[in-house]
Automatic annotation (TrEMBL):
Broad class of the protein's primary localization: other
Protein's UniProt name: D-aspartate oxidase
Reactions catalysed according to its record: D-aspartate + O2 + H2O = oxaloacetate + H2O2 + NH4(+); D-glutamate + O2 + H2O = 2-oxoglutarate + H2O2 + NH4(+)
Gene: ddo
Molecular function (Gene Ontology), one example: FAD binding
Protein's organism: Cyclopterus lumpus
């Protein structure tokens, strides 16, 4: 009896997490990870990597699932105290995620004095993932589980259909062309990596565009949220705006050395697509499991949606290869 063949398309944090889950849970399958780009050249590599509950239906448990993995992998995750500040005092003062982060409370008047343009704030502790270290580790874990890696672009599902029993689509923004998803669109993000080792607090403006995120090797400051913008070039106007806005929140940013400027395109849609469908390819129906469209929540949701995708792969294999050892 031949082994079931599964291919995972895409090697960002969602694709790598999905590949690891499938390879480890289904050792009798042959699992291939196929992507045009691998770390350090993926969108996930440049992400700030902040674990923050996403505003998508049904994702609260996915955030909890990721928190459980941190206990096992402390080398890639850092705990940081955080401030989220609001210019409007009528903000949602105690949001749904207040019970999911650590030590949620309202900022004191003394703390808010640092931010004279803001009227209200939330203080809590959350987690930062160092993606530039985490992604290579995930790839090594996948290889240890017997996974195969192939670096090339998947131009169509048709070209994969004769070689694999199940296709797992984690191609992110590439799904716009790969599967014709017109709901998918980019949200352009530009950030700076700066040297500021004296900073130990996350500071996030509730406008979702301005933030200061310390990390293990540098501080990420940003940013932009430009919907429908496909530009990957650094915009000097955005760089100037980021430095000015972050400098108003933390004046010492002005003396920080800029180490790098980075641009990435968040693969966004109304909700992430985590589902399976049977696609007619080369004269046969091939199960395709979709796991993409996480927007800015890829790191937060990756492990949870990878486990969901694993369940869909199991279902698909039972249908196409009912005698397979799963």
């Amino acid at each position: 009896m031949r082994r079931a063949r599964v291919v995972v398309v895409g090697a960002g944090v969602v694709g790598l997490s999905s590949a690891v889950c499938v390879a480890e849970a289904l050792p009798f399958c042959s699992v291939t990870l196929l992507a045009e780009k691998f770390s350090p050249h993926t969108t996930s590599d440049g992400a700030a990597g902040i674990l923050f509950p996403a505003e998508f239906p049904g994702t609260r448990n996915l955030f909890k699932l990721f928190l459980k993995t941190i206990i096992l992998h402390p080398l890639f995750f850092l705990l940081f105290s955080s401030w989220q500040i609001f210019k409007d005092a009528s903000a949602d003062k105690k949001p749904f995620w207040s019970e999911l982060v650590i030590g949620f409370r309202f900022m004191t008047d003394s703390e808010l004095k640092r931010f004279p343009d803001h009227k209200f704030g939330q203080a809590f502790t959350t987690i930062k993932c160092e993606c530039s270290s985490y992604l290579p580790w995930l790839e090594k874990r996948f290889r240890r589980a017997g996974g195969q890696v192939e670096q090339r672009k998947a131009n169509s599902l048709q070209e994969l259909s004769n070689s694999y029993d199940v296709i797992v689509n984690c191609s992110g923004l590439g799904s716009k062309l790969l599967v014709g998803d017109n709901e998918l669109h980019p949200i352009r993000g530009q950030v700076l990596k700066v040297e500021a080792p004296w900073l130990h607090h996350f500071i996030k403006d509730a406008d979702r565009k301005t933030y200061i995120y310390p990390g293990m090797h540098c501080v990420t400051i940003g940013g932009t949220r430009q919907e429908g913008d496909w530009r990957l070039e650094v915009d000097e106007g955005d760089t100037k705006s980021i430095l000015e806005r972050c400098g108003r929140l933390e004046p010492s940013i002005g003396k920080a050395k800029v180490l790098d400027e980075w641009v990435g395109l968040r693969p966004s849609r109304r909700n992430p697509r985590v589902e399976r469908e049977a696609v007619q390819l080369q004269g046969r129906r091939v199960p395709v499991v979709h796991n993409y469209g996480h927007g800015a929540s890829g790191v937060t949701l990756a492990w949870g949606t990878a486990l969901d995708a694993l369940g869909l792969v199991r279902q698909s294999l039972h249908e196409v290869l009912p005698q397979a050892k799963l």
